[in-house]
């Protein structure tokens, strides 16, 4: 089963992922970076929309 992953070094704090799927993504205000709060995932359509909306392509499915 694929898990959701996010490369924080690539994240620029765009926040689209958090706005689209706050069930899976959180935001660290101090670092201004998103992170995955639920790696096992959630609504796949929302997660895929978050992946597609990320300007740095730092969110991905991990096997």
Automatic annotation (TrEMBL):
<dbReference type="GO" id="GO:0005506">
    <property type="term" value="F:iron ion binding"/>
</dbReference>
<keyword id="KW-0813">Transport</keyword>
<dbReference type="InterPro" id="IPR017896">
    <property type="entry name" value="4Fe4S_Fe-S-bd"/>
</dbReference>
<keyword id="KW-0408">Iron</keyword>
<keyword id="KW-0411">Iron-sulfur</keyword>
<dbReference type="GO" id="GO:0051536">
    <property type="term" value="F:iron-sulfur cluster binding"/>
</dbReference>
<keyword id="KW-0479">Metal-binding</keyword>
<dbReference type="Pfam" id="PF13370">
    <property type="entry name" value="Fer4_13"/>
</dbReference>
<protein>
    <recommendedName>
        <fullName>Ferredoxin</fullName>
    </recommendedName>
</protein>
<dbReference type="GO" id="GO:0009055">
    <property type="term" value="F:electron transfer activity"/>
</dbReference>
<feature type="domain" description="4Fe-4S ferredoxin-type">
    <location>
        <begin position="2"/>
        <end position="30"/>
    </location>
</feature>
<keyword id="KW-0249">Electron transport</keyword>
<dbReference type="InterPro" id="IPR001080">
    <property type="entry name" value="3Fe4S_ferredoxin"/>
</dbReference>
<comment type="function">
    <text>Ferredoxins are iron-sulfur proteins that transfer electrons in a wide variety of metabolic reactions.</text>
</comment>
């Amino acid at each position: 089963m694929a898990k959701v992953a996010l490369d924080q070094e690539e994240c620029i704090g765009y926040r689209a992922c958090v706005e689209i799927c706050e069930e899976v993504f959180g935001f660290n205000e101090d670092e201004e970076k998103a992170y995955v709060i639920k790696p096992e995932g959630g609504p796949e359509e929302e997660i895929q929309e978050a992946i597609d909306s990320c300007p740095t392509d730092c969110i991905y499915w991990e096997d």
